[in-house]
Amino acid sequence: MASAFQSFWQYLVTHFSDFQLATLGTFIIHESVFFLSGLPFTFFERSGFFSKYKIQKKNNTPAAQERCILRLILYHVCVNLPVMIASYPAFRFMGMRSSLPLPSLSVIIPQVLFYFILEDFVFYWGHRVLHTKWLYKHVHSVHHEYATPFGLTSEYAHPAEILFLGFATILGPALTGPHLFTMWLWMILRVLETVEAHCGYHFPWSLSNFLPLYGGSDFHDYHHRLLYTKSGNYASTFVYMDWLFGTDEGYRKLKAIEKEGKEPDEVY
């Protein structure tokens, strides 16, 4: 398996330049993973599949879903791709490479874990700032147009917020200068995580049922359905930042009420 993968990577670096792989290659992988993982949830909403696992009873209209998809394509082509191209020299300067040999798991796993922790920390504080009155009104409210998220809404945001999210995501790799393979793996895992957090469904197999520190869809869905002044749950991946700073208080109270089998008060 490892040998076959090495051969495939050899093909890539032989037929494409570092620039092509790091920019167009990264863009293609991002778009493929994002839309392939996010589109099924638009179908689930329309068809009613898995309705018993849906967190909110409300559904988005097909028109609202289509508007989201069209704007995402526009934002990705006009914002994401140019940023990837513009940031290539910086990543080369910081030591990113695509040549063989591929890094070992003992290198990849600590780096990706570090990226998750750093991104979550930066995202938490940036997200709290985006919920201040002026920035919410002029920037972050775009992302909150969808009070009932459905996977693809994870990257539906104002262009200024897209740049911030991109900064939080690439900061770790920029500091460590990883192999391009590690960069791609990190991007794939981050995309899958944010799509899952916005999917609108809490399944028996959701990671949050098995990983105590992982937030997941139920944790983030609470953030979307509340007023911006009450929302909390600002972290992107884990729950400990909100716990440490008390910004998950409302969510914890709601979970306690639900655990007792009572009907929660109207909080949004």
Keyword list:
0% strand; single chain; mainly alpha; 10 helices; globular; 268 residues
Morphology: globular
The helix content is 55-70%
Strand content: under 5%
Sequence of secondary-structure elements:
HHHHHHHHHH
Largest sheet composition: none
Uncertain regions spanning at least 5 consecutive residues: none
Q: N- to C-terminal separation?
A: 51 Å
Mean pLDDT across every amino acid position:
92
Organism: Dioscorea cayennensis subsp. rotundata (White Guinea yam)
Membrane topology: Multi-pass membrane protein
EC number: 4.1.99.5
Domain Fatty acid hydroxylase: 112-247
Give a quick precis of the structure.
The chain has 268 residues and is mainly alpha-helical.
Give a written overview of the molecule.
Helix 2 (about 20-45) packs antiparallel against helix 3 (about 60-95). The chain is built from 10 helices and no strands. The protein has one domain (about 1-100, about 110-200). The termini are far apart. It is mainly alpha-helical and about 270 residues long. The longest helix has about 30 residues, at about 60-95. It has helices spanning about 1-15, 20-45, 60-95, 105-130, 135-140, 160-175, 180-195, 215-225, 240-245, 250-260. The radius of gyration is 19 Å and the shape is globular.
